[in-house]
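Bug #77: duplicate submission created two jobs. Keeping one. Sequence:
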Amino acid sequence: MDARVITWFLGPMVLLAMIVNGARWFGARRLDAFASRARRRAALASLVGALLAYAVVLGGVDRAGASASDEGAVAHPAVPALAAVAGIVVAALFERWTPRVTPQGGRREAALDIRRGTESVRLTRYYVGGLVLCAVGLVVGWATSGPGGRTGMRTWEGVVVMTTGAYPGRAYILATVGALLLLVAATWMALRAVDARPAIVDDSDLDRALRLGARIRVLRWSASGTLVTAAGLCLTIGPSLNDVTQRLRGAVAMAGRADAPVAPGDWMQNLAFALTALGVVALVLALVAVLWDAPVVPRSRGAARSSASASSVSPAGGGAR
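Kept job's structure:
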């Protein structure tokens, strides 16, 4: 597909995400050592994941002697999904270095409701919606591809018109589906790693914030990966089908015929417009997903108790105020 669909979007998106997350980090309130270490590692995971994901994007662009913003640059439809997998892997690896605490009094049982409120339902819906839209784009690309599976084609009463640029047809279906399945598997494994992290049973608020933040760091990549993949498919197929339709009408007219499909009853052109609109919506939702804010990390309960005890003692050590 046309590489400009993803390179014009992902470059500024990654840069914006890094700036926003950096501003959140430096502008956040000071925390105790444990909570601050957890927040610092979370920010580092987001930064490393963003850099690695963008490196995958740049490596997946076939410039054909041109830059990524030129007409000759093409990218495989699976590139955004593979970039998201890279970000998810980084997030999962950083889970291995999550700060651990030993429960006070030697208690090791987990509270039954410790994970309540950590589902991030809306990001999960974006992720699933992106998968559904990818399926729609792949089906349309397969059904409208020409010989060889790398171009789009439309026929009408013996008149055949084909696309002139990159087109995600049958030749790209298997690899794209494989990349999406890899994305689903990586998401599942990363979320299981988050669920398996030892619970901070002595501080449920801190545990909930860190656990939800970890899930969001995974689902950001999952949702944005599927949505950008869907957007790339839709914004390549839609305009291509519209262009083919216009040229088909011209070819039929040149043949001296007047029976070419015309709007608004031309279902193929209506499908092209619908896919283009859905592609734009997918890009907007992808931006929302990648900038999704994680919950504020609170001070650990032990540090809060120590601070309260210190503030209740007079400077002369004369007891409670």
